[in-house]
Each structure stands twice: as C-alpha cells, then as structure tokens.
Amino acid sequence: MNQVITLVTGGAGFIGFHLCRRLLDEGDAVICLDDMSTGTQEHVDRLAVHRNLRFIRHDVTRPINLHVHRIFNLACPASPAAYEADPIKTTLTNVLGTRNMLELARSNGARFVQASTSEVYGDPEVHPQPEGYRGNVSTTGPRSCYDEGKRCAESLVFDYERVHRLNVRVARIFNTYGPGMREDDGRVVSNFVVQALRGRDLTVYGDGSNTRSMCYVDDMVEGLARLMKADSPVAGPINLGNPREISILDLARMVSTMVGSASTIVHLPAVVDDPRVRCPDITRAKAKLDWEPRIALEEGLRRTIGFFAERLVVQSPSAGPDRGRGSLGVVEDSAASLC
Ligand SMILES: NC(=O)c1ccc[n+]([C@@H]2O[C@H](COP(=O)([O-])OP(=O)(O)OC[C@H]3O[C@@H](n4cnc5c(N)ncnc54)[C@H](O)[C@@H]3O)[C@@H](O)[C@H]2O)c1
C-alpha cells in the first residue's frame, strides 16, 4: 500500500502534537492542520523536522479540499479558559468544523476519528460514566458551547455514518495531561505544577472534593491510535481515560509534595457548572481495543513536573523585575481552571 496520509486537525495543540509525532514515527505522512488559536509554534517546529510532515494553517470552520486516507478531528480549544473566551466560535468549531471535516472524509472515503469529551456527560448522575449514560448537561451555562458543541458534533458523526456509510469512530476523551501542555492554558495539572514550581499558592476552586481521573498523554495517544486502526467496526462512542479517580484537593497535595514546594493551598469560589465527579468506565475500550492506561499518576506527574521545571529554567533565568510573577502567564485567578 502507498504511504498512509493522515490528517490531524488541531495537530499543533497538546494531544495533537503527541499524536502527530507518534504517527510520523510509525511512517505515516501527516498533515497537521491548525488555526493556531491555542496551538503553539513550538509544536509545529518540532514536528517540522520530520520530512513527512506538512503543516497547514487553516480554520476548520471553513471547508478545505485535501487528499487524505485518515482524519483525526481534534481541532477545538479544550481548556475552559480558552473555549469560554470565544464561546460562539467554540460552538462553530465543533459543529461547522466537524461537518467540514466529515465532508472531507466523505469526498476521500477516509476513516474518521472524532475527539469528543467526557464533558458530554456534564455533571453526571451516574458514576463512573459508561458510554450508555446520556448525560446531565446545561444548554445555557458558560460551558455549554463546549459540552453541547461536542454533543452536536457526535450527532453529526453518527449521521454521516448512517446517511453516507462513512467509517467513523468517536473517542470520549477524559482529562489528559502531560508534557507539552501550555503553562497558561488554565488546566488543573499545569496550573498546580507551575504554581508549585514557582512556590506560589495552589488555587483550588471550591472545597476541592470534586474528582477527576487523569490520563497521561502517551496512554491517550495509544488509545486514539488503536481506535483508528481497529478493523472491526467500533459501533458507538468509546471512553478513553484513566479510571483512577482523585479529588482535586488530593491532586494539589500530591503535586505540592512531589515538587517539594512550600506552597499553601488556597480555596477560591467554585466554578459554575463544574462537574462534581468524573471517572470513565473503560470496559468497552478494554474489550474493543484491548486498551487501558499504563502510566500511573505518580509517574505521569513526575514526567510533567520535569517538563515544566526545565521550561522554567529556560524561560525565567534569574530574571529581573518580572521574576516570580507573570512571566509564565499562569492564569491563577481564572474561574476556569478545572477542565
Ligand atoms: N486534553 C484533555 O484533557 C481533553 C479532554 C477531553 C477532550 N479533549 C479534546 O481533544 C482535542 C485536543 O485537546 P487538547 O487538549 O490538545 O487541546 P488544545 O487546545 O491544546 O488543542 C486544540 C488545537 O485545536 C486548534 N484549533 C482550535 N480551534 C480550531 C479551528 N477552528 N480550526 C483549526 N484548529 C483549531 C488549536 O489551535 C489547538 O492547536 C480537543 O478536541 C478536545 O476537545 C481533550
């Protein structure tokens, strides 16, 4: 077979970068398509060392014509701070962007993997969340652009499967973390790690009893790759995430201890519509993909702390007046740090 051409939309972002790298290492020709709204030039530059990488700066809300065999549709800001900053664009990226990428898949006869999210379960009344649970999502709150946008995107994907017989798969991604996250994107792991490394207070929204299940990015990429490659049909969505659940307060304590920081934990008002619990039921992923996460939270955090520690040294060398404040752009008071 000729070389597989794989399109990764959102390829300059956190998960997209790791996914592109993995696909390039496996020998695919990769098209990384990104509008650079939350993606980084550093990721593009690091990918561009591979001769099989082609970067296209493009907004998925506009149609595009390309020759591709496979599409991973990851384009969408994932941090609440980012997706709430332009909520109308977030909805359009999910709905119009997904429609455009599905049309591209249709014209190429390409296999299509959609990056959906655990947010489709909203503030869940069923715990852990199996794929059959239909969710408890607000259509009116500040997060609805993302949650409902992703729900509509799923609906479009399965309509293209029914109407156009497109070969589609939907990954419901749970919280994912690791090296390559932006310091300033406001997600809980990057916030805690950077705050601890800088000796600042760790900000917990509410009492910290809400839970998350953190999946290391290499495990997530493995799950996405298996989902794309699975030759037998994968009917319906599939949860990808780490079922080890931890409270946000315990996560803050863990990061602080691992960094060896003297930081204290401070509590800020709870975030609107923030889910109280979140934990994937990954029975289907185990059965259909023979996949489950391998990297323990301690190990994943160790690698993530190492990544940010190195960047801190590079970015703020014994610097002048800015030292200790603002040079990393960490969103410390944002009401959107949980993700
Ligand atoms: N990281 C997580 O914990 C998590 C959890 C659930 C779902 N997801 C999903 O996984 C995907 C990747 O998430 P991430 O953590 O890498 O986020 P990210 O913000 O780091 O990456 C998203 C990428 O999409 C690009 N993008 C955004 N809008 C675009 C548009 N209109 N056109 C083209 N490119 C656009 C951004 O520039 C960025 O490079 C997203 O679809 C997200 O919803 C992530």
Describe this structure in words.
InterPro entries: NAD(P)-bd_dom (IPR016040), NAD(P)-bd_dom_sf (IPR036291), UXS-like (IPR044516). It holds the Pfam family GDP_Man_Dehyd. Pathway: Nucleotide-sugar biosynthesis; UDP-alpha-D-xylose biosynthesis; UDP-alpha-D-xylose from UDP-alpha-D-glucuronate: step 1/1. With 339 residues, the chain is of the alpha/beta class. The chain has a domain at 5-177 and 216-240: NAD(P)-binding Rossmann-like Domain (Rossmann fold, 3-Layer(aba) Sandwich). The protein is 38% helix and 16% strand. The strands form 4 sheets. The chain has a 7-stranded parallel β-sheet, sandwiched between helices. It has a two-stranded parallel sheet with strand order 7-10. Strands 8-13 form a two-stranded parallel sheet. Strand 5 (111-117), helix 5 (144-164) and strand 6 (168-173) form a beta-alpha-beta unit. Helix 6 packs parallel to helix 8 (248-259). It is globular and about 55 Å long. The model is unreliable at 317-339 (pLDDT under 50). It binds nicotinamide-adenine-dinucleotide. Nicotinamide-adenine-dinucleotide is lined by residues 9-10, 12-16, 34-39, 59-61, 74-78, 82, 93, 97, 115, 117, 173, 175-176.
